[in-house]
Design goal:
Layout (H helix, E strand, L loop, with lengths): L6 E2 L2 E8 L9 E9 L12 E5 L7 H12 L4 E6 H8 L7 H10 L6 H14 L15 E6 L2 H17 L21 H11 L4 H29 L22 H22 L4 H33 L7
Antiparallel strand pairs: 1-2, 2-3, 3-4, 4-6, 5-6
Helix pairs in contact: 3-7, 4-7
Amino acid sequence: MAVCPPTIGEFSVLPIAIPVLPSFPRSVLHYLYVRRNAPKIPTVNDSRSLFLTNVPVDSTELQLRILFSTLVGVGRFESVTFEDERKEAQHPLDSQPAHAARLLAAHGKKRKRENEEAERAKEEEAARLPSTWTRPLRKSGSTAVVLLADEKSADQVLKAIAKVHRTKKYPKWEGGDASGTGRAAPPLGLTWLKAHNRMSYPDRSALQASVDAFSTLFAKKEQEAAEIAKRIRNEPDEDGFVTVTRGGRNAPASRNEAEEAKRKMIERAEKKKEGMTNFYRFQLRERKKEEQAELAKQFEEDRRKISVMREKRGKFVPES
């Protein structure tokens, strides 16, 4: 079997020895590609993170922890985020109506207290349907981001990968409790499929509890949106416009309120215009010149009118 080169582009290639299985009694190598994590939007942890691609389909956090402990020792591996977990975090549980989502995004609280966020996360977790798998299987060629203790640990992992190619001592892909932690990954194969078949039919009480939690959370977010809509109703914005809301029990804005909002808008526009008039000295000089020219023009016009009137009237001879 041909072995991949130590690096391909910016990736370091880590060969992993897959143990012999009863279904496939032959040892094979799986190639894991590792590089520095460089996302499009940088984060504070990029310097101590590694980007992995082509992770094994049965990967778990425990197995990657064992693998990195084999490379650089215990205590360097902190956590891992798989591709499907990142996508799930970007698209959380949709437990609110569309109009409520728009109102909460535009006028909701900018910051929440930690206890409120924890409470909301607990409510959303309770609203999720029970899982039907004991452990997930990754897509072929999927990715993951490993967070290490510090930047030095990330350097040591890359150096250890280069050393693996020199010594030809490839780390093994452990599937059980090889770390001595007492935790073992749930088995795959027939046991995994049987468990899935059993979990696909959850207990009625557990399913009802999940549905009730979802309905409660949905109604709670609708109530929050209704309170925000009531608060912003008839409140003119900075441009003087009043938000018109349709439906519900709240009546539309009265004519007096609309006229008052319009008056405030006109006053703000006039103040803004006055503030910009005669702002510069040259504007004052130009305005005075225009006024003098207008006075001279008016004086000449008046003198011309008087001359015309005298010519029409002729000489006045008083009666004796």
